[in-house]
């Protein structure tokens, strides 16, 4: 009888502990993650003078963002009927909440999406200073970079910490102005590569070429990675990053410029007049770029 009573007490104790965990500990854990922790971060930012829209539990400012976005979509639909549907101020149309909060709270403010607290910065000098910062704690958030992993691997656009510093040290010197000025030598390099392929086909002898960015990446991979698998990932990931950073940024900028020139023909006239003054011979070089203002 005593044994049954003891077993019953132990069982009751386990049930009590289980109920305690379900009723108190688990809700407290999620409450801390979803509300208390973001609130503590907001308080720290507010003490530094950084304010923002008041969030609501549990979605933060998502509801307000959706409402402002819906208002702009309805306004855009009415404007499209009248034929006025293209604008150069795309941020006001795509991110109306940022535009409203910027006017209300200034160029630096904070907002939240669920339990994620975001810092919005519209100060070019501060952004430049942050990009030049070598603080390893100032990295890219994992919830964003994780989604880009299949596309960019662990290249410079996605990596953080010491691995990012190592990759940046390899790649950055190739984009300094003294390197960019030699871009005209690309034609000669292409000819060399074609001739190299011809020589390889004829006699399997490859001439030595000037060290380029790809060669530097290959050498660094061989020097710093003992594993062939790590070396292969390092090379492939950075080639992906360089392709998207170079190709996509240039193509988007060129497409956007062409659209704006088509919308505003007077800009074409201004650019043409400025080019005739800065580059009377019709040839644009690196030294002429700082003189262009349009």
TrEMBL record:
User: What Pfam families does the annotation carry?
Assistant: p450
Q: Which keywords does the record carry?
A: Heme, Iron, Membrane, Metal-binding, Monooxygenase, Oxidoreductase, Transmembrane, Transmembrane helix
- GO MF entries: heme binding; iron ion binding; monooxygenase activity; oxidoreductase activity, acting on paired donors, with incorporation or reduction of molecular oxygen
Organism equals: Ambrosia artemisiifolia
Subcellular localization, as worded in the UniProt entry: Membrane
SUPFAM superfamilies to which the protein is assigned, alphabetical: Cytochrome P450
Q: Report the main location listed first in the record.
A: membrane
Bilayer-crossing residues are 13-35
Q: Into which family does the record put it?
A: Belongs to the cytochrome P450 family.
Keyword Ubl conjugation recorded: no
> What's the protein here called?
Uncharacterized protein
